[in-house]
């Protein structure tokens, strides 16, 4: 099933991802880790779509951007910013992971998707597939 | 998570509720304070003799955030700019809060302004706000006149 579109992991950041696995798994323990959908913007450009997601607290090591079939998903593991033993006295946001998924259309060229993370904002570039090339059909004589 | 058993922590009903909330919110000419999304959202902690403030400021650079502390009042100010060169009609979705923002909060005690430290990383500002000496409880010796 997934042979046609194998799962692709997009490395994030200018360095193209660091070697070695992160110390702790990004895949969360679902029973204990709350996750919240981050706000996003999507805008159109001549080359394709750009998706921007607010992921405060996310780092290259804690963020996973994954493409499986036609579903692009983001998951960032967020640790509490509070020092040990601190007591919360006022709360306006929930401390938890960021998670959101998107269904991509066939217009997106999956092999050329790139992503970068800066100051807690993830930018994913979804290039438009070159349809002119895709439509050319060779005719055998 | 409200007993959700969906894989990946995804709850389609929560998503629906959120989308519906957003839809109705856009028709509401008098949004209640509950609907107003604060930017940046702030959490405040107490740790020993200091307060620790944490603010979510994604997309901001440290030099773009102005932080001032006077007595027990803390103010954060800045501007969040849209990606340059993108026209309004190019947006298919706009959920992120943009533009000028400012937040002022009153802390429960006086702060020693000279010892305030702030650290900004990955879009999260963390400020350590030590309580002023004068705000700490003091024992006053009661003497009798005899």
Q: Which helices and strands occur, and which strands form pairs?
A:
The complex is a heterodimer of chains A (141) and B (146).
Chain A: E1 8-10, E2 35-36, E3 40-44, E4 48-54, E5 63-68, E6 71-76, E7 87-91, E8 97-103, E9 114-118, E10 121-127, H1 131-135
Parallel strand pairs in A: 2-8
Antiparallel strand pairs in A: 1-5, 3-4, 4-10, 5-6, 6-8, 9-10
Chain B: H1 12-27, E1 42-47, E2 50-56, E3 66-70, E4 73-80, E5 91-94, E6 99-106, E7 117-121, E8 124-130
Antiparallel strand pairs in B: 1-2, 2-8, 3-4, 4-6, 7-8
Give an overview in words.
The complex is a heterodimer of chains A (141) and B (146). Chain A has one domain (1-15, 34-80, 94-130): Sandwich (Immunoglobulin-like). Mean pLDDT of chain A is 80; it is low at 1-5 and 13-24. In chain A, strands 1-5-6-8-2 form a 5-stranded mixed β-sheet, with no helix packed on it. Chain A has a 4-stranded antiparallel β-sheet with strand order 3-4-10-9, with no helix packed on it. Chain A is mainly beta and 141 residues long. Chain A has 1 helix and 10 strands, in the order ββββββββββα. The two termini of chain A are 34 Å apart. The longest helix of chain A is centred in the last third of the chain and has 5 residues, at 131-135. Helices cover 4% and strands 38% of the residues of chain A. Chain B is mainly beta. Chain B has a domain at 36-82 and 98-135: Sandwich (Immunoglobulin-like). Chain B has one helix spanning 12-27; strands at 42-47, 50-56, 66-70, 73-80, 91-94, 99-106, 117-121, 124-130. In chain B, the strands form 2 sheets. A 4-stranded antiparallel β-sheet of chain B has the order 1-2-8-7, with no helix packed on it. Chain B has a 3-stranded antiparallel β-sheet with strand order 3-4-6, with no helix packed on it. In chain B, β7 and β8 (124-130) form a beta hairpin. Chain B is elongated and about 85 Å long. The model of chain B is unreliable at 1-7 and 31-35 (pLDDT under 50). Chains A and B meet through β3, β4, β7 and β8 of A and β1, β2 and β5 of B.
């Amino acid at each position: 099933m997934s042979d046609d579109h194998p799962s692709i992991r997009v490395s994030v950041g200018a360095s193209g991802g660091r070697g070695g696995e992160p110390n702790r798994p990004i895949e969360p323990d679902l029973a204990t880790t709350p996750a919240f959908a981050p706000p996003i913007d999507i805008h159109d450009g001549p080359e394709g779509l750009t998706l921007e997601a607010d992921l405060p607290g996310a780092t290259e090591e804690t963020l996973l951007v994954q493409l499986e079939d036609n579903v692009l998903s983001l998951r960032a593991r967020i640790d509490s910013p509070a020092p040990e033993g601190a007591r919360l006295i006022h709360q306006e946001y929930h401390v938890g992971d960021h998670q959101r998924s998107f269904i991509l259309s066939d217009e997106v060229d999956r092999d050329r998707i790139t992503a970068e993370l800066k100051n807690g904002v993830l930018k994913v570039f979804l290039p438009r597939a070159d349809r002119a090339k895709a439509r050319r059909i060779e005719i055998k004589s | 998570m409200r007993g959700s058993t969906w894989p990946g922590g995804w709850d389609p009903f929560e998503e629906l509720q959120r989308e519906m909330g957003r839809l109705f919110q856009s028709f509401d000419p008098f949004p209640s304070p509950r609907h107003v999304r604060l930017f940046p959202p702030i959490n405040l902690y107490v740790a020993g003799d200091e307060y620790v403030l944490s603010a979510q400021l994604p997309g901001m650079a440290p030099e773009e955030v102005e932080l001032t502390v006077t007595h027990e009042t803390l103010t954060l100010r800045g501007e969040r700019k849209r990606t340059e060169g993108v026209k309004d009609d190019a947006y298919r979705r706009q959920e992120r809060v943009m533009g000028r923002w400012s937040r002022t909060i009153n802390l429960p005690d006086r702060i020693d302004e000279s010892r305030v430290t702030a650290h900004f990383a990955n879009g999260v500002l963390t400020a350590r706000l030590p309580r002023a000496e004068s705000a700490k409880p003091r024992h006053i010796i009661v003497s009798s006149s005899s």
